[in-house]
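Example record

The entry below shows one chain as it appears in the dataset: sequence first, then structure tokens.
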Amino acid sequence: MTYAIIAIIIAAASFVFAMLGLGGGMVYVPVINWAGFDMKEVAIPLGLLLNGLNTALVLIPFARKKLVDWKGGAVMAVTALIASPLGAMTSGHVPVQTIKILFAAMVVVAALRTLWASKMAEPEEMMPLKKRSVIGFFTGGFAGFVGGMLGLGGGFIVAPILMWMGYRTKEAAATTALVVTFSSFSGYFGHVAHGTMNWPLTIAVVIAVLIGSQLGGRYLTQKAKSKQVKIIYAVVLLLIAIKLVLDVFYK
């Protein structure tokens, strides 16, 4: 029964986060932990695995609609790939509470900016590829390191930066999914050496992600409006910020 409840929650989270090009680790990890599984040995590694699986699957409908900026996202994806296991390896030596507080402030800023952007017209022009690559180098490294450390994909860092660089909402979500896929799987392998696999739980939640991610990706590419996605994204960011603060003060 516990596995079924976890699977339903994770399927719903996958649907929402797939629309945003995010993995959903901010939901997966605490849900698995709240169900009684160890944070470091089960919840974080499995959360990263699901994160990467969700974004990898949602890349399929994104790619079919030609929404992924493969060239622009390549540098960001590679640096995230390298930095994520480094974050995973240092997770036990860094004061996570302090980092979560700083992140909560950053996420709130990103959420407010996204709400403001929802009132604006979609950008007509991107930054030049060279400039996007330079910014992406540092953004990918930072997002990957942080994502690997906290069991996340780093998408909530990547997406606002892409929008700032001139990506339209759906293109930003699709390209974020590319980066988060590399970051999450890389971070997973950084954590997995210290984790344990619960196969019944893993199978249940993988099936849930398969269903949720495909439905979310199709909804974004076929029905969702850019303003709607931005508002959902901003609300999700604010919820993430609240969760980060609560984790610090009520742990």
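Notes for this example: The CA atoms of residues 25 and 152 lie 5 Å apart. The first helix runs from residue 2 to 20.
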